Amino acid sequence: MSSGRPTTEETGAEARDRLPPRPIRFAARTGWDLSENQLASVLVEARRAGRALVDFTESNPTRCGIAETAPLIARLGEPRGCRYAPLPLGDPAARAAVARYYQERGLDVDPAGVVLTASTSEAYGWLLKLLAERGDDVLVPVPSYPLLEYLACLEDVSLTPYPLLKEEGWRIDLGALERAAGERTRAVVLVHPNNPTGSFVRRDDAAALEACARERGLALIVDEVFGDYAHGDLPADRLPSFAGRRQALTFVLSGLSKVMALPQLKLGWIAVSGPPDLAAAAMERLEVIADTYLSVGTPVQLALPEILAARAPVQRAILERVRTNLAALDAAIAARATVQRAVRRLPVDGGWYATLEVPRVHDEDGWVELLVREEGLIVHPGYFFDMPRDGFLVVGLLLEPPVFAAAALRLVHRLERALSDG
Ligand SMILES: Cc1ncc(COP(=O)(O)O)c(C=O)c1O
């Protein structure tokens, strides 16, 4: 009966429907290894066993009880949102609001150079489409956030790492960056401040990088999603933002995901600046890319001016939380002499993460497994961010402070026990 030949009652179409489907040849770029890794299995096991877990890696602000964002959702009800009249680069008032957001920080951003996107991730994708052919490469900082690997893969673009130097406050290794740039390099990515190191670029390094980009025909793609979250006054030698800079073709990325802790609204942007001819040519092409997708929803664009204008209390609440949690972590470490001697919380200037340098009595997977199995604490291994070597754990700082403080104490006690066992 499985020959596919029609029986007396069957039509030919029905017989074809019974045939097994021919395999589909999916694009090789999607041939990812999607099997569960060891750490994921440990987590599944812990959840199955009904273990209460505290997720120190939580970076979704909508799950961290930031009450200040709730009233902003009501701003999406503007009646003009009933009409669909899309403009590729975005609603003019929304683009002007983004420019104002920078201008209020003293940065010279022109609304004409603002492109709205659905997210920062989408902005990266559009910029890779704009700048790179299949097989071209972009330079990316290491350590940093691992998002780019997939975005580059989806555009058939390669990533070439350039190191940040830990002992120099994660300063860019400019010599290594220049050596890494080859014939097919099209852009340099900066995450500013970097995730998870929380480091801002030095002003003199920024200027040297711009000179290098200008000379070699490279664009700068600067991810500033955490730009509003400097923990205190930045040291004078650090650059607060690349927005509006004119030396090299510069694309500054950000969006509501971090600026307003509203990732679910799906609105990001690119602020384009640079030598005027280059910036204008980039905008012309970006407009076509944006027109192809028209991906930003109308209600959120209409609400953007009001939403951005309401950022101060949201950002104040987040910064206060991040500082409180960091202080709780430091206090927990300081309270245990053995831990204080052996564990270092690396300095951070901004962002929502802290990195612990831990003794290598376990490797990073070993630490993470131990903490999940024995304490119900989820932390990131440093290798997730391509740390320069083994021996780092990364924790997020967004959890509600009482939860964070209790978990930090447990973390430190477990580190202490492991140190005395080891
Ligand atoms: C450094 C960095 N860039 C970009 C993103 C993604 O932002 P979006 O939600 O706008 O795509 C994240 C998300 O955590 C991030 O940490």
TrEMBL record:
<dbReference type="InterPro" id="IPR015424">
    <property type="entry name" value="PyrdxlP-dep_Trfase"/>
</dbReference>
<dbReference type="GO" id="GO:0008483">
    <property type="term" value="F:transaminase activity"/>
</dbReference>
<keyword id="KW-0032">Aminotransferase</keyword>
<protein>
    <submittedName>
        <fullName>Aminotransferase</fullName>
        <ecNumber>2.6.1.-</ecNumber>
    </submittedName>
</protein>
<dbReference type="GO" id="GO:0030170">
    <property type="term" value="F:pyridoxal phosphate binding"/>
</dbReference>
<feature type="region of interest" description="Disordered">
    <location>
        <begin position="1"/>
        <end position="22"/>
    </location>
</feature>
<dbReference type="Pfam" id="PF00155">
    <property type="entry name" value="Aminotran_1_2"/>
</dbReference>
<feature type="domain" description="Aminotransferase class I/classII large">
    <location>
        <begin position="84"/>
        <end position="389"/>
    </location>
</feature>
<dbReference type="InterPro" id="IPR015421">
    <property type="entry name" value="PyrdxlP-dep_Trfase_major"/>
</dbReference>
<keyword id="KW-0808">Transferase</keyword>
<feature type="compositionally biased region" description="Polar residues">
    <location>
        <begin position="1"/>
        <end position="10"/>
    </location>
</feature>
<dbReference type="InterPro" id="IPR004839">
    <property type="entry name" value="Aminotransferase_I/II_large"/>
</dbReference>
<dbReference type="InterPro" id="IPR015422">
    <property type="entry name" value="PyrdxlP-dep_Trfase_small"/>
</dbReference>
